[in-house]
Amino acid sequence: MKSLLTMLALTTTLTAVAMDKPMASTYKIDNTATTVGWAAKKVVGGHNGNVATKDGFLTVSGDLITGGEINVDMNSITVADIPATDEYNAKLVGHLKSPDFFNIEKHPTAKLVITGSEKTKTGLKIKGDLTFIGKTNPIVFDAVVSKPNSTITAKSDVVLDRTKWDLKYGSDDFFKGLGDKAIKNDFTISINLTAKK
Q1: What are 21-55's pLDDT values in tens digits?
Q2: Which of 39, 110, 137, 184 has the most neighbouring CB atoms within 10 Å?
C-alpha cells in the first residue's frame, strides 16, 4: 500500500511539472519580411548593404527562443551606399564575393544555429554558432523579441570580429602600411527577423 501511495505521489508530481512546462512551437522564417543588413568601417569611411535569408526556423518555448537555424544566401550580397548605376558598386560587390572576403563560390551560404536564450531587462540574450567562409564560432547577442498573434519578430545589431573567421583582408593587425585604407576588424550585422507558425 505504501509503495502504491508513493507511486501515485510521484506520478502526480511529474504530471504537475509537465503541465507547468510550456509547449514548444516552431516558427518558419518569412524571407519576404526579414532583412539582414551589414555595415563595415574603414579608417576613413565605410560601406553598408544587405543580404537575403534563404530559409530557417525558430523554436520557441514560452518567452524563450530555445533553438533554430537561419540560412543566408551570401550570393545575394548588395552594397547600399553606392548608387547601383555606379560601376564601383559592381566592383565592390564582386570583391566582396571573391576569396579576399566571403569566397562565395566556395561558401555560398552562411548559417546561424541558435542553441538557446535567456531573459534580459530589454529582451533576450541569444546564444548560437555562426558559420561563414567555412568556419564556425560561438556568438552571443541581445535581441528585442515580440510575439504578436502567430508571428514572432526579433531585432538585433550584432557586432562581429571578422578575423575570428579568418577574414583578414585589409586588417592592420595583419598587414602593415595600410594607412587610411585599413578596414576595421569589427563589422555589424543588423537583423530584423519575422517568423510565422
Answers
A1: 668 899 999 999 999 999 999 999 999 999 999 99
A2: 110
Q: What is the 3-state secondary structure (H, E, C) of the chain?
A: CHHHHHHHHHHHHHHHHHHHCCCEEEEEECHHHCEEEEEEEECCCEEEEEEEEEEEEEEEECCEEEEEEEEEEEEEEEECCCCCCCHHHHHHHHHHHCCCCCCCCCCCEEEEEEEEEEECCCCEEEEEEEEECCEEEEEEEEEEEECCCCEEEEEEEEEEEHHHHCCCCCCCCCCCCCHHHCEEEEEEEEEEEEEEC
Of 183, 181, 192, 194, the residue nearest 40 (C-alpha)? 183
HEC string of 178-190?
Answer: CHHHCEEEEEEEE
Strands 124-132 and 109-119: antiparallel
CB 54 within 8 A of CB 72: yes
Which residues share a beta bridge with 141?
A: 126
Length of the chain: 197
State which amino acid sits at residue 77.
I
Give the global pTM: 0.85
Hey, what's the cell of 77? Answer: 550580397
